[in-house]
Amino acid sequence: MPDPPRQDPSQYESVNWPDQFNVSQKRWRVNRKTVCPPLPVRWLALHCASEGCSDGPSGDVVGLRADMDALPIEEETGARWASTIKGVMHACGHDGHTAMLLGSARELAQTREFNGTAVVVFQPAEEGGGGGKAMLDDGLMDRFGIDEIYAMHTEPALAIGQFATTIGPFGASVDSFKIRIDGKGAHGAEPQDGIDPLVVGANILLALQTIVSRNVHPRQCAVVTVGWLNAGKAGNVIPPFAEMGGTTRTFDPIVRNLIEARVFAIAEKVAEAYGGESHRQLQAHVPAIGQSRS
Amino acid sequence: MPDPPRQDPSQYESVNWPDQFNVSQKRWRVNRKTVCPPLPVRWLALHCASEGCSDGPSGDVVGLRADMDALPIEEETGARWASTIKGVMHACGHDGHTAMLLGSARELAQTREFNGTAVVVFQPAEEGGGGGKAMLDDGLMDRFGIDEIYAMHTEPALAIGQFATTIGPFGASVDSFKIRIDGKGAHGAEPQDGIDPLVVGANILLALQTIVSRNVHPRQCAVVTVGWLNAGKAGNVIPPFAEMGGTTRTFDPIVRNLIEARVFAIAEKVAEAYGGESHRQLQAHVPAIGQSRS
How many domains, chain B? Predict the structure, then answer.
């Protein structure tokens, strides 16, 4: 791709790709917009009516959507198309998504072998930035009168030429959480004077694993992962606090709510059991996505 | 104190204190030495025979010892004598120890109201540097023919004017350990592809607490503290490894050996139980110290 990956959704040069690829012919209209301040995301759509590209839609309006943003990962692939920006990589194949949608847009524009209107949507901030919700809140569907919209994601586990879909959810919700445990610091040799936040934290971390195994219905899908934990600096000092953070994934909104409630109930009550306190922070990101039955 | 605290035992200006305090009168001999390379510690002793300060001892030779080194702690006391070096503090009152021994040395030198020989020893590297052992290995006791040696440590829990002692051990052994747990990194939403080193680490941390409560005889003294644990950077990534470190304290060498064996057996076997591996590092520092019965 000619464009380096951007993690910060306010810095998308990607929004200029369609122009660079010469798909913005007369029969297409280009829209750029900064939606939902203070989230400085931008999206871009092209649409075309098969009958003369009038402003009003003719026939069904079908949306095609790809995501553009990168992840904070150091690219070590050595690929010809490898990221040119240190510490940022199109690690989920979003450059591929964008390229595929650009190719589709050019094909549609050149052949015009379709009826109705095609709306081509390049979504920013899929990776935790809430770009999809920002686009919807901004009225994307009403703005173009979109009847149906289609999206896809690369999946290396599938053979080339295969694709997979299903009715119902197939992209899990993504919520992140952070827990701070306040104990009481002490000399490492005087544990009776402290409240050890590492002992509290280890108990919380393990108890969180029981949410999936003990609280969620066995037929439901759910993941609770603690990805980081940091506490203390010296081996002979009981630190005053510990912090940990993680992610939860679900398909069902009921399970999603259950997990959120259990994560914080465990953190709060386990900390209290040891005489400490937990402070929680939930960053709700993206609900589960999937395909409607209609 | 006129001298800023030094954590690096190679940088003691403290060894010059006795000269500054004018205790090095003619009847005292000052010794400075770098002992036990590559440990660049220095010690200093003054000795005096009550009968004319001859080179040969006359009567008993009694040693008095104080420690001089600082700790890596930011001093926030605002005291008049606060550390003038950022990040280093005489946090265990070692400046007090040194001042007390200097005062004693001056008093002894001025009054000379004692029989035999007094050897005044300023010990570097008490805080984990093994300065005491280095001095002994260097032959301190034989060099001066020391018959008895006395040491003390400040104890804020005692009222002013009180001191405490006992026959047997009263300064615990200090051993530090570090454990690295190698799991297998994975996407936070694909836990089945990884071996979560945080789950392993939390289990090890909690199991270590059972050493004192389940393995050590209830009448024995022992402490096992994990002072720090670090793993992972992002909430949605299962990290490949976790590291933790801590300290153990005992009075009895048998308990000391038991704890060392249990710490690493727990780390190794718990890690193996989850399909991971643990790598251990033991830094044995200081055995228990105490008062002999004779």
Answer: 2
Which residue range forms the structural domain that includes residue B239?
170-291
A228–B233: do the CB atoms touch at under 8 Å?
A: yes
Q: Do B227 and A236 touch (CB under 8 A)?
A: yes
B119 & B240 share domain: no
Question: Taking the mean position of all CA atoms in its chain, how far away is CA B48?
Answer: 29
- Whether residue A153 is contained in a domain is answered as yes
A85 within a domain of the structure (yes/no): yes
pLDDT in tens, chain B (294 residues): 334 554 444 344 454 555 544 544 555 656 555 544 334 345 566 665 455 544 444 568 888 888 877 776 777 788 888 887 777 777 777 888 888 888 887 787 777 777 777 888 888 777 766 778 878 887 888 887 888 898 888 888 889 989 888 888 878 888 999 999 999 999 999 999 999 999 999 999 999 999 999 999 999 999 999 999 999 999 999 999 999 999 999 999 999 999 999 999 999 999 999 999 999 888 777 788 777 765
CATH number for position A271: 3.30.70.360
CB–CB of A246 and B188 under 8 A? yes
Best of B198, B206, B248 to disrupt the A interface (most A CBs within 10 Å) is B198
* b/e code B47-77 from CB counts within 10 Å (16+ = b): bbbbeebeeebeeebbbbbbbbbbbebebee
- Which of B127, B179, B228 is the mutation pick for testing A, counting most A CBs within 10 A? B228
Of the residues B135, B164, B193, the one at which a domain ends: B164
Sign of CA dihedral B15, B16, B20, B24: positive
- How many C-beta neighbours within 10 Å does residue A168 have? 11
